[in-house]
Amino acid sequence: MNKNILYSTAILLASLTLGACSSDDDEPSGYSVETVSEAPVWQVDYSGNESRPDWQEPNAGDFENWTVMLVQLEDELKPYASKDDMMAFFVYDDLRGLATPAVNVQEGEPDVTRYLMKAFGNENGQAELEVTLRYYCSRLKQVFARTSHIRYNVGEVYGIDEPLVPQFTLGSSKYPVMTNLIITAADLQAIDVPFADGDLLAAFVGDECRGTCQLDHLTTYPMTLPVLGREEHEGYTLKYYQAASRRIYTLSKRF
């Protein structure tokens, strides 16, 4: 009878071991995968709830000189641009220039992706200033801002010979934290997918997309993926879309 018990126990343990091995073979290690019918639309949702700023046109009589600048919106914000948007130029916290979309001379209609403004000042050409461009998007109900330090040059025209395209999406008030994720070969080793045209890489917090990167067959390591955050030390999950197989790989590793 004891022999029968031992024999039955051995069979049970063997079946459990074989079952465990079979399960490991069926499930991929380090990622999950799903097949989709079309390419995913991964993009950061910049929509907010900010009221239209009460920016007032500066009084030209208070200033001794000015420069002129032509500011263009980056591609990511162009779909949301409208004639109700505004662009403001600040020196420290002092508003020095304000503009609505420029008018296309040939068509006589606003070009909602470009802003032509005078930036007023009392400084001379030796002054190094902290300047900020702020853009209010009425459709997204959000203010975007980018700050830089420049040397003020009286009478200079910015954005004509060389386009002036601030990266406003990196100055979102909704996502005040920006991190550059450096992706190496080891990070994507689990899925072992060769880069190809149409592939996508994206970072998520839960179901919320925080940054995307378009890939092609020329993409090499290491890659830089700009990721936006609401606060410091958030954890990100990477998703990889392979266009050829229409598969989405979700890595288990948190970044």
What descriptors fit this protein?
255 residues, five-stranded antiparallel β-sheet, 10% helix, disordered N terminus
Q: How would you explain this protein's 3D organization?
A:
- The protein has 255 residues and is mainly beta.
- Helices cover 10% and strands 40% of the residues.
- The chain contains 1 helix and 16 strands.
- The protein has one helix at 2-26; strands at 31-35, 65-72, 86-91, 94-99, 102-104, 109-111, 114-121, 128-137, 142-151, 157-158, 177-183, 200-205, 208-214, 223-229, 237-242, 247-254.
- A hairpin with a 4-residue loop joins strand 8 and strand 9 (142-151).
- The longest helix has 25 residues, at 2-26.
Strand-helix topology:
Elements: H1 2-26, E1 31-35, E2 65-72, E3 86-91, E4 94-99, E5 102-104, E6 109-111, E7 114-121, E8 128-137, E9 142-151, E10 157-158, E11 177-183, E12 200-205, E13 208-214, E14 223-229, E15 237-242, E16 247-254
Parallel strand pairs: 2-10
Antiparallel strand pairs: 1-16, 2-7, 3-4, 3-8, 5-6, 8-9, 11-14, 12-13, 12-15, 15-16
